[in-house]
Amino acid sequence: MQQATKPTITLWEALLPVVILVLLLSFNVTVYGDDALGGSNQFILLIGAAVAAIVGFRNKVTYDQMIEAIGSNLKSTTGAILILLFVGALAGTWLLSGIIPAMIYYGLQILHPSIFLPACIAICAIISIATGSSWTTSATVGIALIGIGRALEIPVGMVAGAVISGAYFGDKLSPLSDTTNLAPAMAGSDLFTHIRYMTHTTVPSIIITLIVFLILGFFQNTSGAADTDILLTSIKESFTINLGLFLVPVLVIFLIIRKTPPLAALLAGTLLGGLFALIFQPDLVVKIAGATTLSVISAYQGVMNAIIGDISVTTSNELLNDLFSSGGMKGMLGTIWLIVCAMVFGGIMDAIGGLQRLSNALLSIAQSTFQLFASTAASCVVINLTASDQYLSIVLPGKMFNKAFADKNLAPENLSRTLEDAGTVTSVLIPWNTCGAYQSGVLGVGVGEYFIYAIFNWLSPIMTLIYAYFGIKIKKIVS
User: What's the pTM?
Assistant: First the structure.
C-alpha cells in the first residue's frame, strides 16, 4: 500500500475542530455538570473527530488513512489501558483486605489541635494516595475535618484550603488516580516514570504549603477538641486493622523502586491484596460473595467481585461509607472510554496534518523551552476555564503539544508532568469547573473562600514554570 504524505492544511483549518470541540464541551458540561463524564463528553470528542474528518476530506485525506492513524494512536495507549484495569483491580482488593482502611485509620491518629492545619494536609494526602481520589477524600474525611475546624474556631476557608491541598497532592502521586494515569497516556510516557518525575515539582510545592500552614497555625487560637474516636471506632468495627497490612503496599513500592514492569507490580499487589483479604477479613469476603460461610467458592467469589466490580463496606459512620467503596476494573471503564474517544480525535487530527500544523504554529511562538512549557500550562488553564473539566485540560493539550515536545527533544514525562501541574490541580480553583463546583458544594465552602488557601493548587503551575525557566530537571530524549 502506497504511503501517503500528510497534507499541508491552513492554521485556521487545524484550529476549526479544536475550537468547535471546546465550544461543544463547554456547552455539554453546562448542561450535564458532573454527569458529563458518564459518556456525553466522550461523544462530543467523536463529534470533534467528525469535524476534523470533514476538514481532512476537503484536503484529499482518505478514510483509510484516518482509520490507520486512529489505530496507531490506540495501539500507543495499550499499556495505559491495561494499567488502568489493574489499578481498578488493586483498589478493590486493597479495600477488601483492609489495606486502604488501615492507611486511613493510622492517618487519622496523627491529628492534634496544635498542628491541626498541617495535619489536615497530611491526613488528606495519605487518604488520597490510598484511594486515588481527591473527590472521595474531600467528601468523607474532608467534611469531618471541616466540622472539626469549625469546633476549633478556625476559618473554614483555611481548613478547606488545607484539605484540598492535601487531597490533590495525594491524587497527583497515587497510581490509583485516573488523572495520574491519563496524563502519561496522553503524553506517551508510562505511569511510574510519570509519578517519579512529578515528585521533582510536587514535593517542593507541598513542603512550601506545609510550611505556610504551620506558620498560619501559630496564629490560630484553637479551642475545643479534635475528637476522631468515632471515625476510628467505626473503622475498627468493620475491619481487622493492624500494621501487618502495610506489607503489601511496601512490597509494591519496593517492586516499583526496583523498576519492575508496572503491570507485574500491580498484578502482584492485586493478588497479595486478595490473599490478605482471606487472612485478615474472612467475614467480609463472605459478605461480599453473598454467602454464609467461607469456602473455596465463596472465597473466590468475594475476591473476584472486588477485582472486577462494585463493592462497598457499610460502617456505623455515614461519612466513611462512600470512602469504603470501589468500582474495581469496571470502575475504570469511563476513563478508558474517554481515552479511546480522545485517541479517535487525536488520530484524525494527526492524519489530516492538524496536530503538525498546530505544533508548528506553537513552535514558531515558543522558541525557547520555557515558552513551550508556559504555552502548555496556559492551555491547560484556559481549557479548565472554558471546557470546565480537568480531564479535558489533560487530553486536549496532551495531544496538541505531544509533537511540539518531541521536536524540542524533550522526554514525554516533561509534558505529562506539566499537564498535571497545570491541568489537574487548577480545576478546583474555578467555580464553574466541575471540580470547583463539586468541592465547594461538598465542603460547604465557596471557591472564593478557599482559593488563596489552596496553596498547593496554585503553586504547582508556578513551580513547573520555575523549573522550566531555570532548566531544572528537564529530561531530554535519549537517542
Answer: 0.73
Grid coordinates belonging to 269: 499487589
Q: What distance in Å separates the CA atoms of residue 158 and residue 453, rounded to the nearest whole number? A: 6
3-state secondary structure of 476: strand
**Residue 395 half-sphere exposure toward CB, CA atoms < 13 A:** 28
Which residue, 192, 193, 265, is CA-closest to 478?
193
Please report, for the chain, the start and end positions of each structural domain, with discontinuous segments joined by +: 80-331
Q: Please choose, from the candidates 123, 204, 209, 250, the residue with its C-alpha nearest in 3D space to the C-alpha of residue 417.
A: 204
The rounded distance, in Å, linking the Cα atoms of 109 and 151 is 18
Task: Name the DSSP class of 332.
Answer: G
DSSP state of 451: G
Spatial distance between the Cα atoms of 118 and 345, rounded to a whole number of angstroms: 43
Q: Specify the amino acid at residue 121.
A: I
Please tell me the total number of residues recorded for the chain in this structure: 479
pLDDT per residue over 171-217, tens digit each?
A: 999 988 889 999 998 998 888 899 999 999 999 999 999 999 999 98
Cα separation, 471 vs 474, whole angstroms: 6
CA distance to 8, 10, 178, 360, per residue, from 351 (Å): 11, 14, 28, 15
300 bridge partner residues: none
